[in-house]
Amino acid sequence: MSNNPMREIKIEKVVVNIGVGEGGERLRKAEKVVEMITGKKPVQTISKGTNRDFGIRKGMPIGCKVTLRKKDAEEFLKKALWVRNNKLPEWSFDEEGNFSFGITEHTDFEGMKYDPEIGIFGMDICVTLERNGYRIKRRKLRKTKIPHRHRITREEAMEFMKSKFNVEVVE
Fold first, then answer.
1. Is the Cβ–Cβ distance between 86 and 77 less than 8 Å?
2. How many CB atoms lie within 10 A of CB 47?
3. What is the DSSP secondary-structure string of 22-87?
4. Which of 47, 50, 72, 88 could form a disulfide with 68 if both were Cys (CB 3.0 to 4.6 A apart)?
């Protein structure tokens, strides 16, 4: 591995998402759970379309999420991987080097107890990995695509997780 600082992989963001499927009281409880686990105030996610079977209308709040960056993201990811026994399935990595996994019960986190008033919520955790220089695809002026040689492959992402977080990638 070269010691080029532009080739270093880093965590861009970690998104913690709870999809409730309805607004109201359950959504408020889900927001409370996300806030207790991450320490940040969640934003509501809004439905993009109408689904009669689920009773969802377009523009209705149906979940909540928190985006963590830098130190917060790393600390939370360590906690979340501890809940998963530091194991991730191979299929949770995508071709761009990002990965996602789910946690079935929020009570699995350290220090979280079951509260009959809140209930149990599962959550999705999506992690975006980047290299330095990815700003060129988001900046306002002279936006450019990331060249293929600079993108993170699936194998590089798995290797990064093994070396940095001591994660076992299971087939």
1. no
2. 18
3. S-SHHHHHHHHHHHHHHSS--EEEE-SS-BTTTTB-TT-EEEEEEEE-HHHHHHHHHHHHHHTTTE
4. 72
Instruction: Tell me the three state secondary structure of residue 156.
Output: helix
pLDDT digits (tens, 9 = 90+) for 132-169: 888 889 899 999 998 888 888 989 888 898 888 888 88
Domain boundaries, the chain: 7-170
pLDDT of residue 2: 61
Pair 132, 20: CB distance under 8 Å: no
Element (H, E) at 168: strand 168-170
**Would you call 171 exposed, middle or buried from its count of C-beta atoms within 10 A (0-12, 13-18, 19+)?**
exposed
> Nearest Cα to 120, choosing from 48, 32, 53?
32
Tell me the whole-structure pTM to 2 decimals.
0.83
- pLDDT tens figures, 85-95: 888 888 989 89
pLDDT band at 107 (very low <50, low <70, confident <90, very high): confident
| Domain 7-170: CATH superfamily, name plus number | Ribosomal protein L5 (3.30.1440.10)
